[in-house]
Amino acid sequence: MSQIITIELRKWILEQSAAGHSHESILAAMMTAGWARDVASHALQNTLPAQQPGPPAVEVADTAVQSPEQGVLTRTANAKVPDLDLSRSPRKVDAGDRSVDVLATLTQPRVVVLGGLLSDEECDALIAAARPRMARSLTVQTQTGGEELNPDRTSNGMFFNRGESELITRIEARIARLLNWPVDHGEGMQVLHYHPGAEYKPHYDYFDPAEPGTPTILKRGGQRLATLVMYLSEPACGGGTTFPDVGLEVAPQRGNAVFFSYDRPHPTTRTLHGGAPVIEGEKWVATKWLRERVFT
Ligand code: PD2
Ligand code: ZN
User: Fold this and answer.
1) Is 8 in a helix, a strand, or coil?
2) Would you place residue 136 in the very low, low, confident or very high pLDDT band (cuts 50, 70, 90)?
3) Ligand 1 centre and the CA of 197: distance in Å?
4) Nearest to 3 by CA among 32, 51, 28, 36
5) Which ligand 1 atom is the nearest neighbour of the CA of 205?
């Protein structure tokens, strides 16, 4: 098992220990925050000297072990994430070559539903360019950092390279302007195609810090911080993007998009989401993931 022990996490563990908390109580706090026992225990063993057997350590009476949730997983708290400037609750946001409608917003999790991000011609052109390159979708294999066929994802997919055509370059520049995030921090756009019955079961888009393959994945630009799912077609029934933690379903309407961000790789972001089964018609989407650093 390998596990990232960030400077922040090491510091947090050392602070809790210096404050008089026992290994067991620090371990318990980490598990409450969502860490698997073996992973938390590994992080502790690699940070603290072994506790001598003997009388139990005296616990600090009135201070609970501070939660490790904020900031210590792989990022510091309040680190910047991609976002739109909605401070004035605008109806439309300037995305450079196009004005995009703000249809709905949610703060926790951060979700923004956007209208008119892509023209009909752009949707058609993306589908036409993707169609000959489609293969059964793979997902990143978190055990090794490689890719694997995923039974939870029954769509077909492909990736464009960043900047590979005038169309891709134009859309990437629009997204960068809209979300205030540099083009080179984005992964190449992914296109997915769902037939009736196909779905993408609920999942998180960030890479789980507890998985051994994650350090390899993070070498290419750090964590994912945000997702933009753009709808290229409209299935007649089904195929919404769902957020089960908050009971939200976004209808797949051609040219529209749903944006969501996650400032830490943890379920407390409430960004569990899925692609509901398509019931009638076909669903095409293009997904853009935004990373912490330059994606290579
Ligand atoms: O196609 C979707 O609605 C969808 C849902 C959940 C796409 C993704 N996740 C994704 O590409 O990560
Ligand atoms: Zn997803």
Assistant:
1) helix
2) low
3) 15
4) 36
5) 12
The mean pLDDT value for 110-135 works out to: 97
246 within 8 A of 112, measured Cβ to Cβ: no
Per the CB < 8 A criterion, the answer to whether 159 and 289 are in contact is no
Distance CA 39, CA 31 (A): 9
137-168 confidence digits (pLDDT tens): 666 666 666 666 566 677 899 999 999 999 99
Closest ligand to residue 155's CA: 1
Give the residue range(s) of CATH 2.60.120.620 domains in the chain.
92-291
CA of 18 to the centre of ligand 2 (A): 40
HSE-CB of 32 using CA atoms within 13 angstroms: 12
The secondary structure of residue 183, as a DSSP letter, is G
- How does pLDDT run across 166-200, given as a tens digit for each residue? 999 999 999 999 999 999 999 999 999 999 999 99
In the CATH hierarchy, which top-level class contains the domain 92-291? mainly beta
- Tell if the pTM clears 0.85, that is, is over it: no
| Best of 159, 241, 248, 283 for a ligand 1 pocket test (most atoms within 8 Å of beta carbon) | 241
Q: Is 14 helix (H, G, I), strand (E, B) or coil?
A: helix
CA-closest residue to ligand 1 atom 4 = 275
**Residue found under tokens 């090794």:** 144
H or E element in which residue 174 lies: helix 166-179
Contact 283, 239 (CB under 8 A): yes
**Atom of ligand 1 lying closest to residue 250 CA:** 3
Report d(CA 163, CA 31) in Å as an integer.
42
